[in-house]
Amino acid sequence: MPKGCLVITVGGLAGSGTTTLCRNLAKHYGFKHVYAGLIFRQMAKEMGMSLQEFQKYAEMHPEIDREVDRRQVEAAEECNVVIEGRLAGWMVKNADLKIWLDAPIQVRAQRVAKREGISVEEAFMQIAEREMQNRKRYLNLYGIDINDLSVYDLVINTANWGPDGVFAIVKAAIDHLYPDGDTGK
Question: Is the model's pLDDT at 1 over the cut of 50?
Fold first, then answer.
């Protein structure tokens, strides 16, 4: 692994495997794990709302997103941290490695259904609605199109590998990072 201070961002849509990857990275490398989704869920709980209710509330109250994003950027000032969030790659501009995890919505719905104890159909509908709301919110709030993956260094379709395979790919990327980037020399 490269020496020094590393900041890694991991983004992806619901059910793509971001939390599993981040937990594995934090455990393996001893990184701190900052989880934007958990911050969002904690804020929903503090306000006595379900995730879906809070999602709609956040659409009308941009200070919610700004607070979550502020906490992510603040966390990136530390060394050896993995920051998980849909916008982390956009917000943490100087991250050493920006990763996006993806999978077809059918695969993600199956994973979410299993995790949440709901039907695949219900998970599919929740994911589709949430993604539509999030995309609109990110465009309005920051001018960011979540479907634009150009800011990421590594994009992985997690339907093709299990958690161990995804971890192995990302570990190889981390272990072979140039300390100061490759300037073509």
Answer: no
- What pLDDT score was predicted for residue 120? 96
**CA neighbours within 13 Å on the CB side: how many for 142?**
16
Tokens of 7: 């900041």
pLDDT digits 0-9 by tens, 6-26: 999 999 999 999 999 999 999
Task: Count CB neighbours of 50 within 10 A.
Answer: 10
Of the candidates 113, 124, 147, the one whose C-alpha atom is nearest the C-alpha of residue 12 is 147
Decide which of 24 and 43 is more confident: 24
pLDDT at position 156, please? 98
Q: Pick from 53, 52, 89, 51: which is nearest to 69 by CA?
A: 89
Sign of the alpha-carbon torsion through 106, 15, 9, 97:
negative
For residue 166, count other CB atoms closer than 10 A to its CB. Answer: 22
Q: What is the pTM of this model?
A: 0.85
